[in-house]
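Protein folding task:
====================
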Amino acid sequence: MRSRCAGRCVVRTFRLASCERWFPFKESFSPLLVRALLSACGCEDGVVLDPFAGAGTALFAARAMGLDAEGIELLPPGCEIIRARAIRSERLDSDSVRRLRMWIATKPWRTSSDRIAPRVMRITRGAYPAPTRDAIERYLGACQHERDVVQTALRFALLCILESVSFARRDGQYLRWDYRSGRARGTHRFNKGAIPTFDRAICAKINELIDDVVHGQTSMFSKDRCACIPARAST
């Protein structure tokens, strides 16, 4: 009973202290649990390999213990999160914060002539309203002109809002489609509710990241360094 209760405390502590509210990576688990397991196994040196790195929890927990860590991750969201966490600076510097605030104030994607169309899988085709899809492409086009740390923060903010501005909602391993998407199936009509505009959602998310980092509530990035190798699907 004691160990069971302790386990629950570890998980709850992690949920409250982490950046789960930024991007709810549901498959992640407690870094405290990783550290406890590594300590229990007597891992004091060497390299920790996580072949299913996810959001990088095991990698960064190992690095916090002074161990080298390498990971392999197939899914783009996991790779994007790990890139963000692997930024050397623990907090955004003042110039980077000013650039992010400029993005909120001026919304440069609205006037961007550059576009980058994200890769679309068949299962997610038609996931966004046309104005949202257009804004995403312009946003990515404008991002490429920023320096690396700002670009990484902007891409991470975009990743965090993609589900909220889409017609779909993840339900376990499945996607539920809002009736407005034209892809809904079955007799039960699914209504996702109000879908925020891209501008509203992305500005709110960037502002949330800035507030948390500037006011020291949590660190957006980590000083820890690790290697994450995006896995390639076999042909």
